[in-house]
Structure formats: structure tokens, C-alpha cells
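ARCHIVE CARD
Drawer: 12
Card no.: 0347
Subject: one protein chain, sequence and derived structure
Cross-reference: see card 0346
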Amino acid sequence: MRSLLSRPYIPFGTQYYRAPSPPPEAWEQDLANIARLGLNTVKFWVQWRWNNPDEGQYMFDDIDRLMDIAEKNRLRVMLNTIVDVAPVWIYRKYPDVTMVTLDGRRIGPQVQPHRQIGGLGACFNHVAAMEHMFDFLRATVRRYKDHPALEIWNVASEPELTSSMAEMRLYADDAEHMGDMLCYCENCRTEFIRWLGAKYRTIDRLNVSWNRNYRSFEAIEIPRTRNSFNDVIDWRIFFVDTLGWNVKRRFDVAREEDGGKHPLMCHHVFIQGFPVTSTANDPWNVGRFGDLHGITQMDDPMMCDVLRSCARGKPVISAEMLMLFGYTLALPKLVTANDVKRNVFTGIAANMKGFVFWQYRPETLAREAPAWGLTHLDGSPTPWLDSFAEVNRVLQKNADFILDARPRAADVALLYNPENQVFGWAATGNEKNVTDSLLGVHKALYERNFVVDLIHPREFPGVLETYRVIYVPFPYCLSGAICTALKAWVEAGGLLIGECYFAGWHPESGRHQTTIPGYGMDEVFGASQQHAADGSLPGATEITVMKTLQYIRSGQKVHGAMVREVLRPSHAKVWGTYANGEPAITCAPFGRGRAILIGSFFGLPYYRGGASKNGDLIASLAGLVAEPGRPNVTGGKMRIDLLTDPRGSAMIVLRNLEAARREFVFGLPGLRKGKAVEQFSGKTLQLRGNDGGVTARLTLEAGEVRVYRV
């Protein structure tokens, strides 16, 4: 990150301008106030519809003035190029540009709460319209590339298929809304057939995968229901590729015009908020193009870990930190100083190097009014604005350290597989079943101080050698290539943990596996599925643990969800049984590694607030491979993150995860005894030497966050 910026600092500031708000008469005073607080970064939107109102005519007067005011106040600017709001003239010039739902409705142009100027709905596969979009981006970069206030180009703000039209995403949560699926226009059909030709090469290969008897690619029908799988998976992954191609073109255009003077980035929305099935949002797809990458950050640690993981070594920032989100008469809970610390230092602990809050003044337009602001409606300061300024002072004081620091290497990796996400929706009508399974496993590990990465099939097989433990939640649809790589990795010494119906669907042939786990993974797990039944009946998925592990004792109960899969061990040992004694959890050696199979879904109910012991079991299984740097805690749940830099300096971030005041004792391997200084209060904490590390005792209030430098 240091090498990308105009000087060594932590970008820290606020989104300010989304035309036509705030009004021009507020700009001078607001930007002066932002600078006076010590914040250093502002973000302005340059919007296709607003700044290119007629074909060939660009109106940048507002951005010109804002850039000059920012420069006068020594503020650095992130320019957000918003291209999903097509101008009126585009819709008049190309009547076929609007996206079309399955049931034939044209859904653009339209307004959304956060696109108050309208223009949403242009199809990414309309080639002529997209060329005009790239022309607008080219003109914008050409105009501002030499402005002294410019720091970062953000060329793709929350890229996704539906252009942030929330009602168009309902079908990902409710099978009754598939009629809102996008996009069924002729441009998309034409491009989909071309995409299938590139993927399968011959119609015979497609027929094997889809189990059809088409005579040519031109005969292919677009899926209209979710009642088969491979055609639906292809249909949705096609849009992932469409979006990726569009975002790549934006980077290519901006890079060509800017000439490498400024870093380029985009930022994605979390996989929970923008599911891949409905929005084509795959962070690994769009995160590969920029010099750095960002996220719309909410209060969820897995968001930060997805960001770090998909960027794979690139600097990462919070491009939109959401803490006061709301709508008219659905107002946000006011934040405290501790809330600000928690959000910022959760990001710092995950290796973020910058933060841009959404937004400075509360929104006054459309349904997002009157929420979101760091100030009151009249622009006067709030207590939480002062808290942001205080956090910024601590960050800048530690900027040299933070820019060079890294968190501990990950203890565990979770598999995020877009095809499995689509499969989960097609199979159940609710894509959140798969996502919530990931969230539940992550939550269990995060609460017990594991560092967690997420991995993607795009990175296979090379990424696997980085990890000693891999957990695969809700693993129904896995390809042969994924399973082959996992098998070799376990044989070489890895610990694989998989849930029920592991590789049950065969995407190469479009058929259900007859032996589960599929692709020969039953050999790896030393067990196979004997039979499976409805897991929703009372007590159906109650499992008695048969082995004492780090966080759980033999005889304690855990609970699965959705499926009751009875296992048939071959050479595996039984580590858990259902009430009638049938095998529910097994563990088997394979080569130099081990594989654990769970006959239900464990992360899903843990995330949704039930099955409290599931977290203990998940963490115990992942902890079978001891990581020398992982902290230990007694006294309750406390999150401990350690960052170190090449000079040997360290930062400790502590967070009380309990809802009450607690006294904790914690141990941190690898540090030397001495005093740690809290960066906000200046108070010291004595670190006592113990077995190659340090221990300390302290009391934290409910939810309290402390930050220490060693």
C-alpha cells in the first residue's frame, strides 16, 4: 500500500458527494471541517447519467469545483466512477438496452434509494451501449488524471448484475420470485450461447453435461425454472463472467488513460448481501484486476476475511464503511465510540489499510433519507464524528507500522464455491442456506481466535499448500478437479473437514452421485453415506460426541440441520452418533493426513442462533492441527488479533465478545515479556513471560475494544 500512495499515510475519511447531494452551498464549509478534524480522504461520485446528460456532452463543473476545494484543504480524493446509471439518451437511442425478467418485464430505467437520479437497468450484454459507457469512463479519467488532489480511481463501485435493484434479488431468498431473474433479453441469449460454445466446444459435450439431445448450440433453451442444476449453474455463472469482463474493460480503459499515475481499484459487496446467484457478485472475479481492492464493510468479520482472501496479497481497504444505514422511518441505531473502534480495528486486524465512511452528511434524498451521516442533518458535528476523528489520530500515529504490518497466517481455510452457491439455491430455493453455513463455521472459528481465509476453485490446486486445515461447509456440488486436488492435499498431510452430501452432485455429467462422498472421496473419508433422511424432525439431528477434544467433552450433544445422513465407516473411526447409535461423525487417516466427515450441516444452525455446542465442536475439529501462534483465552469469549511488522513491532487488538463485563486471562505465543501501551488511553498492560510467549490478565466491559502496541 505504501508504494501506491502519494505519501505514507492511512487513507481515512468519508464519502461526500453523490450528485445532487449535498448542495453546492455546503461544499466549502464541509470540506474545510473534514480537514480540520484531521481526516485526509474524501470520495466523490462521477455519474454517467449526471455528468453525461447528452450524447457527446460532458458536464463536469461540479466535480471540477469539488476537486479544487479538496486540493485547497489538502484532502486526497477517491473518484468513484458510477456507470450503472445510464443517461436518458441511451434508453432513447437503444430501446432494447433494458434488462428483461423471465416473465418479460423490462425493468429499466428506474430509480433506487441509492441511485436517486435514476438510470438503472441497462444490460451489460448490450455491446453498443457499453461502448458509450466506456467512452464516459475514458473522458472522466482524461479530465482528472493530472489533478493534484486525485489519489485513487475506484472504477467499479459494488459491481453486480442487477445494478443494486433489491427487489430483483428477492428470488435468491424465495423460490416464488424466479420471475424476477435477470436478464432474459435477446442480447443475453446471444452471448450465453456464444459463452456455452467457448466452454463446451461441441454440442455433444454440452448434451452430456445438461443431459439433453440438442442438435446445435442455436437450439439451446435458457433455463426457466430451478428444477435442474447444470443448465441453471451455467446460466448464472455466465453472468459472473459477463460482469467480470465488463469490470476488466473498465480497468483497461482507466489504466490506458491514466498511464499508471494513480492506483486503480474496485470494491465489492459481501456475498451475503449480494448473492452470486442473483447478482453475479463473486469477489474473486472482480478482485483480480486492480492495484488494490475494497469492500462495502458492515459489522461482520467474515466480510474482512473474504476481502483479504480474494485480493491475495494486494492492499485492501474499506471503501464504504456502513454503520448508520437506514431508511425513512427505519432509522439506524446510533453508534458509540466503541462501535467505531470495533469496525475499524476488525478491519485493521484483517489487514485493511484504509477506511472511507459512508457518508459525511445524512442523506436528504429518496428513501435513504434521513440516515447514514457522520453529522447532523444541518452539517453540525455528532459525537460519533468526534470518535472517528479520534480513531483516525490513533491510526495515523501508527501509520508506519500499520502500512507494513501483517496479521498471523491463517489457521484454517473455508471453501467458497460459486457453482455450489447456485446449486444450493436451485436445490432449496434459498441461497442463504449455503452462505449461512459458511458464516456459521467462520463465526465458530473467529470466536475461538482462529485466523480464517476463504479459498476459491479459481485458485486450485496451488492455494491448498498454504493451509493445514480446510473446512468445506454445505459441500453438495464440487467438481472432479476440486476433489482431485483435495484428495492429493489430504494425502500429503492436510486435515479435511466436510459436511454431509460431500460432492453429491456430479457437475461434469449433470447427475447425482451413486456413492457419497463422490469422486472417490469416500476413500479419503473412510466412510460413505448409508442413507439420508429429513433432518427437520424433532431430535433427528441430535448427535452425541464420542471423543473429548479441546473445547468439547465426550457425551455432549451437538445438532445438525436439514439432513440426517447416516454414515457407513470403512476404515474410519466413529466420533459421533445419532440417538439410536448410528454413525454421524467419522475420522479417518488418509496418507499422511486425516479426513473428518459430518453427517449433517453444522455451521448453518450455529449461525442462525441455535446449536450452541456446534461452535465448540467445529473449533475442536479445526484445532486438531495445533497452530503455534494461536492465542488462548480463559474467562469467556475474547477475540485476540496480533499484527507484526518486519522490524519486530507488534499490535494487539482485543475485543470482548461477551454481552457482559468479564475478566480474561490470555496467552500469546511468540511475544517477549514487557509492557503494552493502549493506544487510546495510554494505560499499560503487563505482559508476563510464559512458555515461549506472554500472558496477561485484564477486565473488559461488554463489547469493549482495546488496541495495544508492544
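Annotation on reverse: Residues 412-622 form a domain with the Rossmann fold fold (CATH 3.40.50.880). Residues 200 and 206 are 6 Å apart (CA to CA).
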